[in-house]
Amino acid sequence: VANEGGKHWTVNEVRALIRIWSDKNIQQQLEGTVRNKRIFEQVAARLQKFGIDRDWKQCRTKYKNLKHEYKSVKSAQDSGSTSKSMKFFNELDAILGHCTMEQANKSDNGESERPPEWTESKPEKDCIG
């Protein structure tokens, strides 16, 4: 049985995870949440439908690792380096690339501190997907 360290993710498993992650609903749930076990349980359940047997911890760990790797490749590219690359960069860039500056700006000016009902909802404002 695959556990926390577990067996390596296959290309198809990672693609399926990214496909689920690219769902706008999942992205919105993950945005700004720290306690996200419930979300990753949903992700794991959806992977099961593809015949992929991963638990929520494995999904969360893979998600975090992909996100971290993406950010390090992205910042290397932004600083002019082309030596860093990763397998699923374009797929992750479609999910993360359009919103990263928007989210960084929000956390700088305290806008994200306000409860959601205080800010008028502008869906997909700067995130053209």
Automatic annotation (TrEMBL):
Q: Name one Pfam family in it.
A: Myb_DNA-bind_4
Q: Which InterPro entries match?
A: Myb_DNA-bind_4
Q: Which residues form the Myb/SANT-like DNA-binding domain?
A: 7-95
Tell me the first and last residues of the signal peptide: none
Domain of life, source organism? Eukaryota
Q: Where is the composition biased (Basic and acidic residues)?
A: 108-129
Cite the residue spans of the region called Disordered: 100-129
What protein does this entry describe?
Answer: ZSC29 protein
